[in-house]
Write a structure and sequence with these properties.
Two copies of one chain form a homodimer.
Chain A (H helix, E strand, L loop, with lengths): L11 H6 L13 E7 L5 E7 L1 H10 L3 E4 L4 E4 L8 E8 L5 E8 L16 E4 L2 E4 L2
Parallel strand pairs in A: 1-6
Antiparallel strand pairs in A: 1-2, 3-4, 5-6, 7-8
């Protein structure tokens, strides 16, 4: 599908300072995605997108990831109700990572374990402690 | 070095709810790291750690990454002065991603392009716009 094709930046300047979205997918065709809560700033989850997931995310205005475990496109919340409405999308300097600021719908959660955020444990003195 | 050895969680419950730090490194021996500013919540950068980088980060209380481009341990700020003092470290549900809340030292920046954060561009209507 043509919608899943993105250009490649011709040089470093275009990649880092250009206005053309030229995402760099890795050897597996994936790019990293950091998702934060648009209101609290909390990091909710970390996931991956392939070109199709990115194209669908841009089209929908909702987060669509690529599930590496299920090896398929994953419209977050399609079954759980935890749809992520995108408030802002940013990309990093070398265009291999996206930052989504979202408003989680449904019960407001993002993590399959049942927590609001996947990052519910703090590393303290080498141990993990669950903390909101 | 024994300091770079971490245990493997024996099962899903231990991985997701346990108090033992059992980081899951990928096929390249790396895990994803999201770094935010401890005071503003802004996502500053996205990077990687191998076991040695994680062990040194825990020991130092400062972010030590693994540079994939240089293929070496990278004590952030060692040359730039942009040392990242760790205020809190969190790990996600399946222990393959870390979230560091840091206080950037030196000029307060984190990005090699010169911006405070690597995410200095917003994706808007398919175009990239530089915005603080």
């Amino acid at each position: 599908m043509s919608m899943t094709e993105f250009p490649t930046a011709p040089d470093k300047t275009a990649l880092e300072r250009g206005e053309v979205l030229a995402p760099r997918f890795d050897a597996n065709g994936l790019m990293a995605v950091v998702t934060t809560h648009a209101e609290t700033g909390e990091v909710l989850m970390f996931a991956w997108m392939n070109a199709e997931a990115l194209a669908r995310t841009l089209e929908l205005g909702e987060a669509v990831y690529f599930s590496r475990s299920r090896n398929e496109i994953w419209h977050k919340g399609a079954t759980s109700g935890q749809i992520q409405k995108i408030v802002e999308m940013r990309i990093d300097c070398d265009q291999d990572c996206l930052w989504l600021k979202v408003l989680p719908q449904g019960d407001g959660g993002a993590c399959h374990v049942g927590f609001r955020s996947c990052f519910y444990r703090v590393v303290e003195d080498g141990k993990l402690v669950e903390r909101p």
